[in-house]
Amino acid sequence: MATRTIGKVGVIGCGLMGSGIVELCARRGLDVISFEPTQSASDTGRGRVQRSLDRAVKSEKLTRAEADAALGRVLFTTDLDSFADRELTVEAIVEQEAAKIEVFGRLDKIVTSPDAVLASNTSSIPIMKIAMATARPEYVLGIHFFNPVPVLKLVELVPSLMTAAETEDRARSFAVDQLGKTVVRSKDKAGFIVNSLLIPYILAAVRMLDSGFASAEDIDNGMMLGCAHPLGPLQLADLIGLDTIKAIAEAMYEEFKEPLYSAPPFLLRMVEAGLLGRKSGRGFYEYT
Ligand code: NAD
């Protein structure tokens, strides 16, 4: 039997990742609802989507008419009840287990379609913990996008022990056929494939900087020019957000208790100082 396509998508959280998921789905012609808990956060999220679409017009990836049509397909709301008819919802709120569990508990009571897919964009939190906040864990899985969502090709699919094969098939077809992504499949272990490799590398770069081994520029140039990486590890950390790096490291440390996943004190101090990277204007580098 052919897998049914998804027409109505919900996205919870419209920050760095949520706004990218909203934009991509809208550009692909889907009906999208974007939720943020407050009007000001919703307005900020809308502004993010709008600016990214404007950049796509400027670089001639989209026409003005296509960008306007994409934005016209998105309803920005502070009312989660409007997610009742969504066929697939992606949660992209802060990387905090308790907050995600709360959102999935609410969503479970709101979404009425019995075979709707409930997905998390979590970078590291085991999907089972989130799925068990619902009465339908067989419809829950991880659909993990990468930043910037409209540009990077990868999606990690993370079925939990409880995810039904049909749910995974629908999510795969959504990511590949409808959004044009390439999918890799990971076991439900904190960090999944990419962050299990990436986070220890970034943390090692932070420890290297903190110890005075080398400057931020030299660490980043070393990896860009010596290993052909498009960004160095500290530039990448600034792009991801240092609060998100810290949260991912903590979820991985909690799962494996391995020192290589433990967030170095220097990273903790930067997050405490509000130096979160690009999104706050300063991290390992300054952004104007
Ligand atoms: P962000 O801080 O940019 O955005 C989070 C958004 O969620 C904010 O707009 C906030 O207002 C909203 N939010 C917070 N609590 C909420 C709630 N209870 N209900 C609804 N909205 C709420 O974070 P981000 O970088 O977009 O990360 C979001 C998720 O995506 C995290 O799980 C993160 O691990 C994951 N992720 C991040 C990256 C990255 O590069 N930053 C990449 C892949 C996945």
TrEMBL record:
Keywords: Oxidoreductase. Pathway: Lipid metabolism; butanoate metabolism. Residues 191-287 form the 3-hydroxyacyl-CoA dehydrogenase C-terminal domain. It holds the Pfam family 3HCDH_N. It comes from the Bacteria. Residues 8-188 form the 3-hydroxyacyl-CoA dehydrogenase NAD binding domain. Belongs to the 3-hydroxyacyl-CoA dehydrogenase family. NCBIfam families: PRK07819.1 (NF005875). This is 3-hydroxybutyryl-CoA dehydrogenase. It comes from Jatrophihabitans lederbergiae.
